[in-house]
Structures
1.
Amino acid sequence: GAGVSQSPSNKVTEKGKDVELRCDPISGHTALYWYRQSLGQGLEFLIYFQGNSAPDKSGLPSDRFSAERTGGSVSTLTIQRTQQEDSAVYLCASSFGTGRSYEQYFGPGTRLTVT
Amino acid sequence: SQQGEEDPQALSIQEGENATMNCSYKTSINNLQWYRQNSGRGLVHLILIRSNEREKHSGRLRVTLDTSKKSSSLLITASRAADTASYFCATVLTTDSWGKLQFGAGTQVVVTP
């Protein structure tokens, strides 16, 4: 079946603009995660969804970052007033059940460049 | 700071040789997972080993876990050029209810024909 998809694959934006990144998880996966990967910080957890709720938002770096998930499926990560340090690859992953003891399936990522 | 640290940072070997990389972590874990990443994009899950397991195999991959030393190793046997990638260990902490992964810095493996 289809894997995790993300769009856009690349996004270049000017500093101060808002961006939206989209993730379509594997059908039937209730757990959804956002991570980001940057040269300086490596791979970092951002937020976790179980269904439409987000019980763990501990990785969001500032209040400029928000995410939502609708219908227990598609998720959108929004970054407001982008800064150059937001430049990174944003990865989405989904997993079966609560996710704790299961492998995560990753999408190809969105490469965000803030100029 | 990252939970896991990997060693070595980079590894260059020839096809047919074995590649071994190590991962150390700091805090009690529920499980440890290894992922592969090609070309800096999506990660592919390789193996999940639970805290009560000591060794797992999958094809040419062998993973060991020593919870007393808080360390794990990934062995790739009879490597191929297609194994060229970055390899990451990731842990799920005992205290975590939701499975968020805490990644190491990764090992870059280059396999030359």
Note: Chain A has no helices and eleven strands.
2.
Amino acid sequence: GAVVSQHPSRVICKSGTSVKIECRSLDFQATTMFWYRQFPKQSLMLMATSNEGSKATYEQGVEKDKFLINHASLTLSTLTVTSAHPEDSSFYICSAARTGGNYGYTFGSGTRLTVV
Amino acid sequence: GQQLNQSPQSMFIQEGEDVSMNCTSSSIFNTWLWYKQDPGEGPVLLIALYKAGELTSNGRLTAQFGITRKDSFLNISASIPSDVGIYFCAGRSSNSNSGYALNFGKGTSLLVTP
């Protein structure tokens, strides 16, 4: 159980375009999802916390207008990178957690974004 | 978020050897997690620890939640080539400004030679 599906796994886009990444919890309801960014050979850095039915909470230094997060249902959160630039190229990973009780945090398989 | 101090940064060992890595934090955590990440993939949960002093095993892996709640270690016994990857510790604080979000260590890169 506790499977998180992330799509797409890889995407290449032109500079200035927008890219949407989906994160789905397949066998549980995730009231909270998290979006991380990971640069090569570095750790995961939290970008934002997404709560179903409410606005996302962004970490300091993360532009909310650039990284749009929508958590419209208990099983789906999306991250849209708007007006992408080459410096946005990175590995984006989502994570989902059930609230209450002791649960490990399940991660998606990640999305490799390359902006050219 | 808070950065955890994870060491060592990398390890290069021979198959069959035991491995130990640890994480420390200046703050108290109420959950410690250990993940393994393969290239191009998301982290996969290895062991979750929820109580101070808790010692948990998962096959050849053993992890402990430090009594002070500021540290944790992960041991891998009798390493095999498929243990190669990057291991991350992660902690969650009840006082985190990000709610349930995890704070990650910088990772330990493990290489195992046959």
Note: The interface with chain B takes residues 4, 6, 32, 34, 42-46, 49, 57, 59, 91, 93, 95, 97, 99, 102, 104-110, 112 of chain A (CB under 8 Å).
